[in-house]
Amino acid sequence: MTDFEWGTLSAARQARLDAVPDMVRHALRVLEDVLEEADHACTFTLEETPLTGDLDAAVRALLPASCEVAGLTPVPVWSTVVGAALPGFFVPSRQPQAWAAQAAPRVLAEALSAWVTALLARLWPATAQAWELTVRSRDWYEAAYVDVVVLADGRVWLLHLGVSD
């Protein structure tokens, strides 16, 4: 993948801030589709709520009803966690040649991941407080997941990156 700085694209730079969350959600849906395979479905979501008091309560409000916060582990930089997870953590295994370095599907998934990160950077400064979330669930949650909670501008954001296989 090239070292193109996606944040320099006018679509990212000039997007209305209120439009950016939907841009992220759209890019996440496309990335889900690219990474989908039989018995391998990704669920990538971005949710938000105002912080009106307790961080745990705000995060709990963003989770499915059957889930609760098991732990919030501070991370120094949210983009490091997102960059480490996308797309590599979610790459399907049935067609290894399709996902090898420099293969077209891999390049596309990496570009979409970089685009998501660039858009998130419009919402979340690099210095925003961030945590990795561990979830306890009474029902099914995900086979594997990376959940990142970010506090920025009085809002609590939950980026959920999960896979069902």
TrEMBL record:
Which superkingdom does the taxonomy of this entry point to? Bacteria
- The protein here is known as Uncharacterized protein
Q: What organism does the record attribute this protein to?
A: Dactylosporangium aurantiacum
